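User: Show me a protein chain along with its predicted structure.
Assistant: Here is one chain, sequence first, then structure tokens.
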Amino acid sequence: MKKVGNHNSITRKLFLGLASSVIFSLTSFAQEAAPAVTDAAAAPAAVTGGDAVKGKELFNANCAACHKLDAKGTGPALRGVAGKYDMPWLYKWIKNSSDLIKSGDPQAVKVYEENNKAVMSAFPQLSNADIDNIIAYTSEPKAEAPALAAGSTEAVPGTAASDSGISNNIILGALALVMIILVVMLFLVNQVLTKVAKANAIVITPKTPTTPIWKAFARNQFLVLVTSVFLLLAGAYFIYGYLMQIGVDQNYAPIQPIHYSHRIHAGDNEINCKYCHSAARVSKNGGIPSLNVCMNCHKNIAEVAESTATPEYSKAFYDEQIQKLYTAVGWDQTSQTYTGKTQPVKWVRIHNLPDFVYFNHSQHVTVAGIECQTCHGPVQEYEIQKQFAPLTMSWCIDCHRKTEVKMEGNEYYTKIHDELSKKYGVDKLTAAQMGGLECGKCHY
């Protein structure tokens, strides 16, 4: 009885070879059949008489805040705008659209209403030549895939083959049909070979079984030991990192019962932090401002300006928060008097140090002259206040090591500063050199 190799493996190799050949051939055919695409037909015609390069600079400086070339922004997309309107009309519209609308110009009124009655900024400083340059830039054709060189037989993949009339779907369908035929043929060949082997009493050599990789790994004691040590060390590292984050609430930004925007108050209106948080100058705690402090301004400010609104928060939303303040303090806006009916505001605390940590705001704000943003971040940019710093022990120690003690007009530290500066051989001491790393300074 004869023994031969496993013909199944030969069949498998034959199948892979044929499949690769067919895929390569049909893909090449599809690429050859597809024609090159030109963008001349789809692109808007360029307007002559303007410099597109200068127009791009003017567009970015004046128009890009509200307009995009190929997508709607605050205003409509501007590519090809010269093909929609006459140039004399565009001159008037760009220089002062409001006057054109007030004059009753039907085209101006239509554009105004189509864009939700959004008022376009006037640009009287732009000359007709500047506008020509901008229009030339907006009339440039949209960049497409790079065109092929003249005379090339290749084409952009994925386009229709117009010369032969064969689409990509037909090519893919033919490819799938060929693959099915190949599978059926190889299955039939396998059956024929099996019958021939049985008829000629040929024994097919079975595939030699191999040891599974997990068994081989388990039998190697050295690999098991190394892997165990690695897993223990990695586990300890991640567990330590997790435990070190307990109690660290950096970037914690809770939703408050009354939405208070530091961006509007400390940023746009430039209200000093210590006007509201006056306790920070003289006491340990920064303090929660009394609502009476809010009413110093909001007795006369019952609503915000239109320009205050953002895409996330509308004018109506901000006005609603002012009404919540009136409800809390019992303020009757109509009679301009307090009703006496108040409601407590349950503010959510953001910064919360452990009980065993002593931190004095007045020591840092008044004596040391530290800016509020050092610990609380750029609050003038925050719509919702958050915990900026981690407030960990290492963060505080690092700050004490880097921050120099301000001696200007501070006679309290004059004597000890002169003595310690000579001891350490420096001109200015850091908070750490002044005893800022002593345990008793921060811990009871």
